[in-house]
Specification:
mainly alpha, 6 helices, disordered C terminus
């Protein structure tokens, strides 16, 4: 469970939540996103990955934080249906187009879009 007091006092977070998502759009840049993509093992981002990142930033700018990951996945699936939809998005962002994509886009992920307390972490 997230302890907000520890998060506020944790200077190591540097404007990020404990999952690595930036709090707001202001400190984001393409260079920051590219560096983070390399750290996450994605290498140099493709033009299509940049389109996903742009779509996530646009959705956040126009609508605020999404109520659920499902809403964002459906919006992205519509935008990328010709290329292959959901499967194509997960091929580009193996940690999830919403979770990983949002992190790279510098926007907060929807509530409950990732929960490290589920599953096996061996």
């Amino acid at each position: 469970m997230l302890d907000i007091n520890k998060m506020i006092d944790d200077s190591n977070l540097n404007g990020h939540d404990p999952e690595g998502h930036m709090y707001d759009l202001k400190p984001w840049s393409r260079a920051i996103a590219q560096t983070q993509a390399r750290v996450e093992g994605l290498g140099d981002l493709s033009e299509t990955q940049w389109r996903v990142i742009g779509a996530l930033r646009g959705l956040y700018r126009n609508n605020g934080r999404a109520g659920s990951a499902r809403q964002l996945v459906r919006a992205l699936e519509r935008d990328f249906a010709i290329e292959g939809g959901r499967r194509y998005l997960y091929d580009m962002f193996p940690d999830g187009p919403v979770t990983q994509g949002s992190r790279l886009a510098g926007v907060p992920a929807p509530p409950y879009s990732s929960d490290s307390s589920f599953g096996w972490s061996g």
